[in-house]
Amino acid sequence: MSETGIGARVKRKEDQRFITGKGQYTDDINLKGQTYAYFVRSPHAHASIKSINTAKARKMPGVVGVFTGDDVSADKIGGLICGWMIHSKDGSPMKAGPHPILAQGKVRYVGDHVAVVVAETKEQAKAAAAAVAVSYGVLPHVVDAGKAMKSNAQVHDVAPDNRVFNWSLGDEAATDAALKSAAHVTKIDLVNNRLIPNAMEPRAAIGSYDTGTESYTLYTTSQNPHVARLVISAFHGLAPEHKLRVIAPDVGGGFGSKIFIYAEEVVCVWASKRIGGRPIKWTAERTESFLADAHGRDHVTHAELATDSSGKIVGFKVHTTASLGAYLSTFSSCVPTYLYATLLSGQYNIANIYAEVDTVYTNTAPVDAYRGAGRPEATYVVERIVETAARELKMDPAEFRRRNFVTSFPHQTPVIMCYDAGDYAAALDKALDMADYKGFAERKAASARAGKLRGVGFSAYIEACGIAPSAAIGSLGAGVGLWESAEVRVNPVGSVEVLTGSHSHGQGHETTFAQLVSDRLGIDINNVSIVHGDTDKVQFGMGTYGSRSGAVGMTAISKALDKIEAKAKKVAAAVMEASVDDVEFNNGSFTVKGTDKKMAFGEVALSAYVAHKFNSSEIEPGLKEGAFHDPANFVFPAGVHICEVEIDPDTGVTTVANYVAVDDFGNVINPMIVEGQVHGGIVQGIGQA
Amino acid sequence: MENFAYHRPAKVADAVKAMKKAKDGKFLSGGHTLIPALKQGLANPTDLIDLSGLNKGGVKVGAKSVTVSAGTAHADVAADKGLKKAIPGVAILAGGIGDPHVRHRGTIGGSVANNDPAADYPSACLALGATIHTSERKIPAEKFFTGMFSTALKSSEVITAVEFPIPKKSGYAKFPNPASLYAMVGVFVAQMGDGSVRVAVTGAGPGVFRVPEMEAALAKNFSAKSLEGLSVKSKGLNSDMHASAEYRAHLIGVMARRAVTAAK
Questions:
Q1: I need a surface site. Which of A145, A384, A497, A536 has the fewest CB within 10 A?
Q2: What global pTM score does this model have?
């Protein structure tokens, strides 16, 4: 292992600019003639819009324009879309209500975007927004997922009982039979509460229309700028893709919330043309982030787990009602379905699983993928019921898990997934040892003597990462493929630029991707730069979410590097007057088998560009290759976390006494970065708990 | 935030004068409540009179009382050696207000004048029988705190110092809101030289209040044991997303016992 190759704790290259205040986030960018947008938002959970009077606002100082849903209609700008079609059990398609970029006739949650004011300064825009007079007719509302289907509040005309779809996965009859004949059935009711993502950098956008070239540019806080361009072009109908450039510069955290295409970003880029091409900047205030970023989770679940007399799980039945909020966000429909129910087998060998999911509209902010997106929700249900079953059966919870682990691979679960590899017992053993599980009884007694309660909890989780095999998800309703692209450009001096469709917004790709290149080409990591986040530079890409950038994005880079190596060998063979089959490449040097002929990678790169020593009709000059990678399967990292807590019964305050994480992530590229991500994930989980 | 005229007088009399002249003026001390209120548009004064130019003075420990100048930051109160020895409860209270940023900007005068129902200082003032010195007069704590965010201060009156009598023992325990670190319940217990005891509760109700039953029990025997079985009725206590009135009532008992145990 080299000091900067795969597996090395390389310090993050991007941190130099981040920790010295030199990062260029969307809000740091200022364009000539820039104006500022401020959105008028609904103060009501559900109301009809009787009228919007913008006359006073238009006369306020500095106001450049005020736009409402009528202007959007006039320009025939399409609504926001949900890119994954889910069909109900009865075969009917999901009921997608309209989601205009500025409200038309109705508002459906507090924070819904009603109108926008564009002014010379942010303060002027905000002051004028307060002067926009909206007359509302308040309607009955529903915010509780569990009550939505019985509510008298109807969020969308298209869904009379507020149900978006009623979907199922697995064999209901077989699962019912297993439950009926089981020695014991454990039942549990759970609420997985709604979460607000809260990335450090709020969402922001600058939309700009160039009257000279009749093209648009959108700077935006996106995890997937190409998908944003595709949607804004194809569905909002703003401009064809070659007339729309989307740039996602430094982005300060996403956690899923910046995957989606939101109204505000589309409004900024659309309205720029309306004001004669002046750029329009919008940066969310923190309150707006709470109100108008897509939220996560919001599940209400009933689950039943059947066990036989030996403590073996024989059946698992789950019903979940999941709120999707007031509108279907970009990927909302796949989260409580294919990203959730497919993981309900956990690490366990369960012959029969049946999951049914009702998704509902409520008068709340849209709910979409957030940090794990469906998979943590599945783990929560599985691990809570497994723990409860062990306690009911009076079995040691670790032993109960071990007895039910999948032990042979590949393992086909009853819920689509085929696990490729794993050793779940090894992770459990290691975690039990690290947590000193044997000593728990004594620690509990010591806490009791001090008037405290002590408990221990487990999570033996599995995740489907590396999203996703395109054809497979296409057959399940996805509107896009989830491959990734890469282009490797070797410069004449041997330095390398990698253009990737992945997008780094905290993950450290500029380091980890460069580690791959350094490792493969045997060159200094400082001679590698990673380019991402600009649709004019990177041809196409699907972006970063679903734990896909390492598994899918880096594999695309690896494939491109294979091509670079093959091409460079041809060049080296020509220069060294050898057969290409005799050229070997190791540690950055090309050598000819059985001779002392040798060329460094940089020399071969220069030779490829000067093109003096080979026949250009046989070998093209230059050294640049691209590749697309579509994964054959998901990858399945798994592990065991053990948390020991102490509770003060006088106050109810819970403190984490110890936390142990054992994670099998396979081939770790940068342990330091991975540890940071695990720490962040644990803190997020503790936060929700 | 709206525009306002900014003043930074060097003398108390000038601060009062500026306030009298202002159409809708506000005094600014550490600004930890006022500045967020300005940013959110909840307060839109015409004039902001910054008191940071006034003589700060700090902490003066006398024979019978400790006088803390109004502009003294919480961190300076917490770190004062003389105060720590004389009234340890006040030092502990000041050292537990908010986070380090708050403690280095927020001042005792600002906290007392704002009388946030979840602020820490009002409990110490009431339990110790402090005297609030102002530009015009001296006001006993019993008469100073008049309800949620309201005090006996006139609109152009400036607090100059808070004077705490030195007790035999004092202790403070609070259950902080985990996000804001304001007191969800804070209890200050003071045993005075004559053996009398005062127990003041902040955070739990619409304003700081005393608990006579606890005071009587502690006057007989100043120990946590004396408080066992004593509770405060939940009726009238705050009930919000952070804690129900019943939980707050329960925490008053717990925090009172802890304050007594910690009292020095």
A1: A536
A2: 0.92
